[in-house]
Write a structure and sequence with these properties.
alpha/beta, Lipoprotein_NlpA, five-stranded mixed beta sheet, membrane, single chain, six-stranded mixed beta sheet, signal, palmitate
Length: 293
């Protein structure tokens, strides 16, 4: 290679390296300034900033979207609804400030979550409940259950307690004095000869033909084309139910003016009518009011 050619090659390499370095710096700066999908919370110091809410898609985000589009603008409230299918992330991102609040859970779930994860989430106001129901393909009323009849219940602690209380409230079984929705099978004082079978919650609807009656979660009942309002032999009551789903925030944010506005809207006559019209099958029932500690 001639000296001139060698000099040209060296200069070309230097220029190429310089351009590459400059591009890398520019790319790094761009990456650092890119917005993050996980840090969507509003500025806490700006009480006019949008309120960011984590929610399960159905029915929670559906209800929030209605409020966002139809009611919030009337009171000067801006909402950003972020759907999550996961049941753990919404509390985590609320606790660390990535979102301002969440709407997806009931009190027994939250109490357990806070205890196990060291989070400090608190309920603000109840909104709705997806009621547990007793269903059957073999009988037409609960009094048809006799000694030897079989009834399936969900086997996870939270739902099994709900199921046993529902059976007790409707005279199918009797629980020990003082036992409520935290009941276990060992808390059944008198099963009146009815055999209680434990199944995974998701299996109670598909296997309804295997038993005389089944206690089924609202979402699984609807998924099995059962209509709680017409097909259930008995449903949980909405009033005072500890399994009502509520708006929740990190402790200390309960008095944020935007949270208070949203809480009021979520307990409004308009939202009550929206839920009743949207979920005529009874899968979701308004359950307004304060959350019992």
């Amino acid at each position: 290679m001639h000296k001139k050619e060698a000099l040209f090659v060296r200069n070309t390499i230097k220029i190429t390296v310089a351009i590459a370095a400059a591009s890398a710096v520019a790319l790094g700066a761009s990456a650092c300034s890119a917005p993050s999908d996980t840090t969507a919370s509003s500025d806490k110091s700006d009480k006019n900033a949008p309120l960011v809410i984590a929610a399960s898609p159905t029915p929670h985000a559906t209800i929030l979207d209605y409020v966002k589009d139809k009611l919030a603008p009337q009171v000067g409230l801006k909402l950003v609804v972020k759907p999550f299918n996961d049941y753990k992330i919404p509390n985590k991102v609320t606790d660390d400030g990535q979102v301002d609040a969440n709407f997806f859970q009931h009190k027994p779930f939250l109490d357990t979550f806070n205890k196990e994860n060291g989070t400090h989430i608190v309920p603000v106001v109840n909104v709705e409940i997806e009621p547990l129901g007793i269903y059957s393909k073999k009988i037409h009323k609960l009094s048809d259950l006799k000694a030897g009849s079989t009834v399936s219940v969900p086997n996870d602690p939270s739902n099994e307690g709900r199921a046993l209380k529902l059976l007790a409230d409707n005279g199918v079984i009797t629980l020990k004095p003082g036992v409520g929705s935290d009941a276990k099978l060992t808390d059944v004082k008198d099963n009146k000869g009815v055999k209680i079978t434990e199944l995974e919650a998701a299996q109670t609807a598909p296997r309804i033909d295997d038993v005389d009656a089944a206690v089924i979660n609202g979402n699984f009942a609807v998924g099995a084309h059962l209509k709680p309002s017409t097909d259930a032999l008995a449903l949980e009551k909405a009033k005072g139910n500890p399994y009502a789903n509520f708006l929740a925030v990190k402790k200390g944010n309960e008095n944020d003016p935007r949270i208070k506005k949203l809480a009021k809207l979520l307990n409004s006559d308009e939202v009550k009518k929206f839920i009743e019209d949207k979920y005529k099958d009874g899968s979701v029932i308004p359950a307004f009011g304060p959350v019992k500690s």
